[in-house]
Design goal:
Helix content is 30%, strand content 28%. It is an alpha+beta fold. The protein has a seven-stranded mixed sheet. The chain has a five-stranded antiparallel sheet with strand order 5-4-3-6-7, with no helix packed on it. Strands 10-9-8-11-12 form a five-stranded antiparallel sheet. GO terms for molecular function: exoribonuclease II activity; RNA binding.
């Protein structure tokens, strides 16, 4: 298979590297300091002076030469490059490097102790067939991680830890003195301490015993440990949080806009414990509406420079696993002082808008408030009000399990908010927003966290109502700061345009199902993408097409450099509405208040580093969440080994096909060697396995019947036996 160029995720660490990269990319070109400043977009005098100093240093180190006064060129065409190594499950690597269009292949015997994700120096020694670069790792500059999760295997005087991660090609040697009471066969966290030059395996120490493989808590804690995510707060942080004064003080109220008398309520999932946001609603004398989006004022309690702030920053996000939430903040804040619970006064940070019947914002106000939530709704309860336009909440959707009546005021507010949200959503779609209503898998768990059933979480009007007003607040806050002159440092949530190659790839796949995309312009791309996502709803191939469409998109991230948000079709966008569970929102609150108080622009470099950390932690949390769902799906399938399931072929590779069961979205693999009715080969162009004799074809998107062959909770792997293609039975 052709190896596509991967985008490098690590940043250019300093000016020296940035300048050197400019020279390396055009080895015959001559540059002066002004040209380099223009390329790097450096316009200030001190920045230009830094460039001049750096050029002199590079000349002294004989990296560049001065060909005439003030003009420089790179010396020679060095074969040594820096990059990040991406390991395959077969023990080979590819170095992702800015200097090469394609990733540099590194065979297993040339890895020289580099592990997946490490920053490395690579010597590119030859071109492979098809002119592709090949190299050898000459130095590990920086380890991506030193802690790994695996199973301890005891020998007489030492042990080995067999690491769970399939990209880890070696086990870790642990001397008997460093096993820390771990027993043979237990799952542990091991830290690499040393890797002697001649040793086959790195030397490590057991840091933590997780428990017996296969046990629920062991596996969930393993998932967190694999991504370096904590599952407990340090005692010092808990103590600090518990000592905070969380009472509502008259002195503090005087500094805020008092909105306790305005009708305010929350709409959240049934099982939510932390209520980040509330909506307030009142009809103004001129017939317009004042709508407040009230967000927990986390930054009032979480002050910079405290151990509480340090811990929140390190975590950067709450982690939502199948059976638990690992919160960013201790419980006294996340479920207590900062949670906008009903019938309690709370400190909030608010975006208050005057809006007319066309959902146009006529006035806006941002600032600290004190609010009182009159009512808490589950999405299902709010949905009943929207659908029936009445006051009665039936027992089967009620949070208390008993039927009750809602006040006329709340019904009127909910219906008007729903009406305005629908207008706002329609406008967004018209402006080119993309509607990803991806189905989310959820589980009914018994008291021992065993999955009794699978259900799918879908977005209804009540969810979309909340979403639109959160988007409004996020967009307006970002624009308020982003449009200020002179420009102010801020934390944006950006989303770049999709990868053209990936869209073309998506086009090829969906054409098999009779769908198409129009990729001529940005507008035609987004409208045809929306039509595709609408057309596949409820079809067998929906989840596969949704997943492929999402993969064709760029990843959203946090940064101080605003380029807008492609998926939402917003020029300015930020995250303001969830500071209980996202650290960037805490930063946004602090910066917004600082600028409301007339403060000068904050240090962009400091905030850019914090943005990068937040984006990285968000990605780790998402991976842990995916792994926990996969684990629970496999656990669910263990009890269904004798059943046949209809599934869709969701992936095709040279080693087999991936099949996703339609009824529960569990994905497993059918290995090519297990398909016995013919000898099958992989046809990359057709995304298919083709039988040599029968010419029988198993192609991406085909519906097939499978049976569970093997479930491995520890490796989180599911194997299917292929029964055959699904045959439509005529009525």
């Amino acid at each position: 298979m052709t190896r596509k160029k991967k985008k490098k995720s690590h940043k250019i660490p300093n000016l020296t590297d940035a300048i050197l990269q400019i020279f390396k990319k055009s080895s015959n070109k001559v540059y002066n300091y002004k040209q380099i400043a223009a390329i790097l977009n450096i316009t200030d005098t001190s920045g230009r002076n830094q460039i001049i100093k750096t050029l002199k240093k590079l000349q002294a180190k004989q990296k560049i030469e001065e060909v005439e006064r003030g003009k420089y060129r790179v010396i020679g065409n060095t074969e040594y490059y820096k990059g990040v190594i991406d390991m395959t499950t077969r023990g080979q690597g590819y170095v992702i490097c800015d200097d090469f269009e394609e990733d540099i292949f590194v065979p297993s015997h040339k890895l020289n102790h580099a592990l997946d994700g490490d920053e490395v120096e690579v010597y590119v020694y030859k071109r492979r067939r098809n002119n592709r670069p090949e190299g050898e790792i000459t130095e590990v500059i920086k380890r991506a991680k030193t802690e790994f999760v695996g199973v301890l295997q005891m020998q007489k005087n030492f042990a080995f830890v067999v690491v769970s991660n399939q990209k880890m090609y070696t086990d870790i040697f642990v001397p008997k003195s460093k096993i820390n009471n771990a027993k043979d066969g237990e799952k542990v966290v091991v830290e690499i301490e040393d890797w002697p030059a001649r040793a086959d395996s790195p030397f490590g120490v057991v840091k933590q015993v997780l428990g017996k493989p296969g046990e629920h808590d062991t596996e969930i804690h393993s998932i967190l440990a694999e991504y370096g995510l904590p599952y407990e707060f340090p005692e010092t942080v808990e103590r600090f949080a518990n000592k905070l004064d969380t009472t509502i003080q008259e002195e503090e109220i005087k500094k805020r806009r008092d909105m306790r008398d305005v009708l305010t309520f929350t709409i959240d999932p049934k099982n939510a414990k932390d209520f980040d946001d509330a909506l307030s609603f009142q009809v103004l004398e001129n017939g317009n509406y004042e709508i407040g989006i009230h967000i927990a004022d986390v930054s009032h309690y979480v002050q910079p420079g405290t151990i509480l702030d340090d811990e929140a920053y390190e975590r950067a996000t709450s982690v939502y696993l199948v059976d638990r939430v690992v919160p960013m903040l201790p419980e006294i804040l996340s479920n207590g002082a900062c949670s906008l619970r009903p019938n309690e006064e709370k400190y909030t940070f608010s975006a208050v808008f005057e809006i007319n019947n066309k959902a146009e914002v006529l006035k806006q106000w941002f600032g600290r408030t004190v609010t009182y939530s009159d009512k808490r709704f589950a999405y299902e309860e709010a949905q009943v009000i929207i659908e029936t336009k009445g006051n009665e909440i039936p027992a089967d959707v009620s949070l208390t399990g008993e039927a009750y009546t809602v006040s006329d005021d709340i019904v009127q507010a909910t219906l008007k908010l729903d009406e305005l949200a629908k207008i706002m959503r329609a406008k967004r779609m018209q402006q080119g927003a993309i509607s990803f209503d991806k189905v989310e898998v959820r589980f009914h768990l018994d008291e021992n966290n065993n999955p009794e059933g699978v259900y799918f979480k879908t977005q209804k009007d009540a969810n979309k109502l909340i979403e639109e007003f959160m988007l409004l607040a996020n967009k307006r806050v970002a624009a308020f700061v982003g449009k200020q002159e002179p420009e102010k440092t801020f934390v944006y949530r950006i989303h770049d345009e999709p990868d053209v190659e990936k869209l073309a790839n998506l086009q090829t796949i969906i054409s098999r199902f009779g769908y198409s995309l129009n990729l001529k312009t940005r507008k035609s791309t987004t409208s045809s993408l929306n039509k595709l996502l609408e057309d596949v709803q409820g079809k067998g191939e929906q989840n596969m097409v949704d997943t492929l469409a999402i993969r064709s998109m760029s990843k959203a991230k946090y940064t101080t450099k605003n380029i807008g948000h492609y998926g939402l079709a917003f020029d300015y966008y930020s995250h303001f509405t969830s500071p209980i569970r996202r650290y960037p929102d805490v930063m946004v609150h602090r910066l917004l208040q600082h600028y409301l108080d007339g403060g000068k622009s904050a240090d962009a470099e400091v905030y850019e580093e914090k943005c990068e950390h937040s984006s990285k932690m968000e990605a780790l949390a998402a991976s842990a969440e995916r792994d926990s769902i996969k684990y629970m799906q496999i656990k669910f399938m263990q009890d269904h080994k004798d059943e046949e399931f209809v599934g869709v072929i969701s992936g095709v590779t040279e080693w087999g096909i991936y099949v996703e069961i339609i009824a529960n979205k569990c994905e497993g693999m059918v290995r090519i060697r297990e398909i016995k009715d013919d000898y099958y080969t992989f046809d990359e162009k057709q995304y298919a396995l083709v039988g040599e004799v029968t010419k029988n074809m198993y192609q991406l998107g085909d519906e097939v019947v499978v049976k569970v062959k093997n479930t491995d909770l520890i490796k989180r792997h599911l194997d299917f036996d292929l029964i055959g293609k699904r045959v439509e039975v005529e009525a």
